[in-house]
Amino acid sequence: MEVVIKLLICHSFLLLLLPALAAAETLQTYIVQLHPHEGGSASAVSTAGSRLDWHASFLERSVSPEQEKHPSSRILYSYHTVFDGFAAQITDGEAASLRALPGVASVRADRRLELHTTYSYRFLGLNFCPTGAWARSGYGRGTIVGILDTGLWPESPSFDDRGMPPAPVRWTGVCQGGDHFNASNCNRKLIGARFYSKGHRANYPTNPSEAASLLEYVSPRDAHGHGTHTASTAAGAAVPGASVLGAGAGEARGVAPGAHMAAYKVCWFNGCYSSDILAGMDDAVRDGVDVLSLSLGGFPIPLFEDSIAIGSFRATVRGVSVVCAAGNNGPARSSVANEAPWVLTVGAATLDRRFPAYVRLGNGGVLYGESMYPGKTGGLKKGGNKDDLELVYAAGGTRESEYCLKGSLDKAAVAGKMVVCNRGITGRADKGEAVKEAGGAAMILANTEINRQEDSVDVHVLPATLVGYKEAVELKKYITSTRRPSARLVFAGTRIGRARAPAVALFSARGPSLTNPSVLKPDVIAPGVNIIAAWPGNIGPSGLDVDARRSNFSVLSGTSMAAPHVAGIAALVRSSHPSWSPAMVRSAIMTSADITDRQGKAIMDGEGGRAGVFAMGAGHVSPARAVDPGLVYDIQPGDYVTHLCTLGYTHMEIFKITHTGVNCTAELQKNRGFSLNYPSIAVAFKSGGAKSSSAVLRRTVTNVGTPNSTYTAQMAAPPGVKIAVAPTTLSFVEFGDQRSFRVTVEAASPPAGKDSAEGYLVWKQSGGQGKHVVRSPIAVTWVAE
Length: 785
What we know:
Elements: E1 14-15, E2 28-34, H1 48-60, E3 75-79, E4 85-90, H2 92-99, E5 104-109, E6 112-115, H3 120-123, H4 133-137, E7 144-149, E8 190-195, H5 198-203, E9 215-216, H6 226-235, E10 239-244, E11 247-252, E12 260-265, E13 267-268, E14 271-273, H7 274-287, E15 291-294, E16 296-297, H8 307-317, E17 321-325, E18 344-349, E19 353-354, E20 357-361, E21 366-367, E22 369-370, E23 389-393, H9 399-402, H10 411-414, E24 418-422, H11 428-437, E25 442-446, E26 464-467, H12 469-479, E27 486-491, E28 495-496, E29 503-504, E30 524-527, E31 531-534, E32 553-556, H13 559-576, H14 582-591, E33 604-605, H15 613-616, H16 623-626, E34 631-632, H17 637-646, H18 651-658, H19 664-670, E35 681-686, E36 693-703, E37 709-716, E38 721-726, E39 729-732, E40 738-747, E41 756-765, E42 773-783
Parallel strand pairs: 7-12, 7-15, 8-12, 15-17, 17-18, 18-30, 23-24, 24-25, 25-26, 29-33, 35-42
Antiparallel strand pairs: 1-9, 2-4, 2-5, 3-4, 6-14, 6-16, 10-11, 13-14, 19-28, 20-21, 20-27, 22-26, 23-27, 31-32, 34-36, 36-40, 37-39, 37-41, 38-40, 41-42
Helix pairs in contact: 6-13, 7-8, 13-14
Signal peptide: 1-24
GO molecular function: serine-type endopeptidase activity
Domain PA: 390-474
């Protein structure tokens, strides 16, 4: 999925590049993790100054005095809340010396990660019903959502603080000033803002030829739009009359409009670096956020190498719910990122809102497409072709021109014509700009086979529409069938309710998890396709209109858009149940999720057919049921440590993740038959064996619904798999009562031609108060020996 980021360019922006120092060629950023009780006195690091001195002491032992008289000047960040250690600029040799020092747990190179609603809140069933999620949670009041992203545009009406109470007394954050941003930009809605650029500045190579275009606000102000969009999705205020150039008009609201928010700008024009992300998480947890939303990540890597997994563990221990995007590398199998079991991982789904923009061919044929270009609406009347434009494809005769890369189009061939551009390589909106610069009058963006029928729309600079792969094949066939192919675009406005939804987006990353197959990921799916939310305004720092396409709202697609929806739901749940742990919040959201669409049919997959558990996890989020789930699965922080032992992680690998020492042999002997109390059930068997394999999983549920209630088990076993639940009935006397049960899974071999199977377990409340249905998906995979 191509997320288009248009940078604001103005002479007052500051360049985020390091000076071209001779020594910079040999320096790079490393993140150094320390044992807090080794290599120095733990009691000596209680203040920021002494902590910096302690961290510098390690550099003093690894950097020669001839090279550096003040090693502390190499330190970019000192961490101590979600991580014990520091980020510093050092050479490869100095990194090797650091690794050999007592008290150093790991030294890893900084890693670059990528950035992974007028209607979506209504699609989620959020309304003014007295028994709904908004009413029960007070719209999320009292909670604080932290957004780690590209910053925020504070003047957006989505961040208006009318009717908001003051920040909670526990809040200790700041409103950090900088380029065109000061303390007055914060208010009772946006209660804090910080920015982190040291890692980015240290890692980005100095390239004078790029200096003119790589410009940013050196402050929490958002030059990209991505952070403004995600923040308003999670907790934006009500904005009547919102639209994108007239499309998708309605009242915009975040999922938790009563929640406070804090912006932590960790992403810049060249991505998001781990050192900056850790610094943002470190401050956010210490500042007092309740929920952290991270719409960023990469490909799956081992948890002990994953800075987000490491930082989020301590955040979870401190009671912060961490919500992360699953990634946009779907539909590839095992592409899901942010797969730590203490993180709530979110995939993307569609809405039932469409923006039809048809292609009427010169031969009378009509192709369905979608666009948010504010074109004139009208019917598809047959008749003359006086308004048609000549069609041209691959205007330049090269592969680059097929994809409409800038500079690849023959201006004489495209002038005044409708240009067909294949998707891929560059951003969708970038192609429209390339066509316009070459003199083209309109554009048809054609999906290639890899994109299939995926329909993410954009705001283009010229009349344009996006067609699916099937339509693209028909379009190109028509072009080659006649000497003068022609077409016109017919824009049909906004249509709601005519599309089957939700469905899993094609680009949404899939499981099973590579690093942790005993936990099903993603956890849930949420709206992530063609999401309308706040956008930086069209008045630049100099007061000039820097981009005529900009308005207060724009449209984006990706799991980046899905994650803040769930972060907002987490805020609603936390507001309703302030004492709940992050695991209880995640359980409430997962076990209440929908597995059917708006038509009551099975949720479909953008890849084709019915969506499976590796595409949608527990299902599509349902806020109303999440705030009143009936039963929840809780997990204590120590249980995650034991779980990592069951995965075969070493003592040092577990320490790198949890900052906790553990003897796994003793831990597993003490917890024989341990299984993580996760709301979903995942079992991995080895394939190829002649004998049947079996596993026994133990689960415990806590009653958070009505007292004197009884739940009965209902299950559907995967094909070829036997499942037994004992006991099959759970009775609760009081609120807070806990009951345990066992799930036995037995299978001889995988179904023919498959390496996985799925089913479900449901605990259904019986009796007159039987409104709660607590559902857990079951996934069984067979892996090679």
